[in-house]
Amino acid sequence: MKKKTFSWRAFISLGLLLSFLVLLVSGVILYLAPAGRIANWTDWQILGLTKKEWQNQHTVFSLAFAILSIFHLFSINWKAFWSYLKSKTRGGLAKPAETLSILLLFTVTAIGTWMPLPPFSTIVDVGDNLTDSWEQVENQPPVPHMERLTLRDISTRYAPAASPQELKTRLEDNGISVISVDQTLEDIAGENGRSAEEIFSMLGIEMPKASRQGGGRGQGKNR
Fold first, then answer.
1. pLDDT confidence of 221, banded at 50, 70, 90?
2. Residue 41 class from Cβ within 10 Å (0-12 exposed, 13-18 middle, 19+ buried)?
3. What digits encode the pLDDT tens for the residues 83-115?
4. Are 25 and 46 spatial neighbours (Cβ–Cβ below 8 Å)?
5. Predicted confidence (pLDDT) at residue 162 exceeds the cutoff of 70
6. Which of 82, 98, 164, 180 could disulfide-link 155, Cβ–Cβ 3.0 to 4.6 Å?
7. 3-state secondary structure of 95
8. For residue 83, how many other CB atoms are within 10 A of its CB?
């Protein structure tokens, strides 16, 4: 009985399929996700992953898909592939209408997306509108990306009457574990299974209205 050998072709093909599925799912989720400042502040999650974690999945599996595609190309036999490519190229040149049509379509798509022009801009606008739909005054950070500030930063900039150590004590009184006043709200929230929004509310700092209004779109969408 012939011993079965490991099939790299099957391995690579299955890897491409799984990578494609992850890219498809993560792409749709990121298209629908809120802006980064909202997602990070409220600890937005879907299927147990935050927006940043979905971005990481999308990035890593994009690289995996590219690497597996290269291996798939060379696993076929490069000479056979090159011969196949040349025959298909000659076939394409024998059908100038189809060849020019697809080249024109790709060119129009690239330029239309870059300009931007409808209907390509419409796709982008729909995604932007979906992102904006998550935004409400009550779940916006007082200032953009405040989750990246440390307790020391917050004390210096927004609560000079309270020392960094006092802010740390306020959180500990609420059952929050804080290692250092140089931890960011994001880090503290992650270690305690809370959102940065919840951690900040425990500090009892009243932000000026002007600061809250500045927390809109000035820093970009950070999708």
1. very low
2. buried
3. 766 776 666 666 678 778 888 999 999 999 999
4. no
5. yes
6. 164
7. coil
8. 11
pLDDT of residue 206: 86
pLDDT on residue 219: 41
Coil, helix or strand at residue 50? strand
3-state secondary structure of 49: strand
pLDDT digits (tens, 9 = 90+) for 46-65: 999 999 999 999 999 999 99
Q: Is residue 46 within a helix (H) or strand (E), and if so which, with residue range?
A: strand 45-46
d(CA 126, CA 132): 10
CA–CA dist 37, 137 (Å, integer): 13
pLDDT at 47: 95
Cα–Cα distance measured from residue 150 to residue 153, given in angstroms and rounded to the nearest whole number: 5
CA distances from 178 to 189, 194, 198 (A): 9, 13, 14
Q: What is the distance between the alpha carbons of residues 34 and 30, in angstroms, rounded to a whole number? A: 8
What is the torsional sign of CA 10, 11, 17, 20? negative
In angstroms, the Cα distances linking 145 to 97, 191, 216, 221 are: 52, 18, 11, 11
Tokens encoding 55: 């971005």
Annotated domain spans of the chain: 9-77+105-132, 141-213
Angle between helices 78-93 and 51-75 (to 10 degrees): 90
Structure confidence at residue 153 (pLDDT): 96
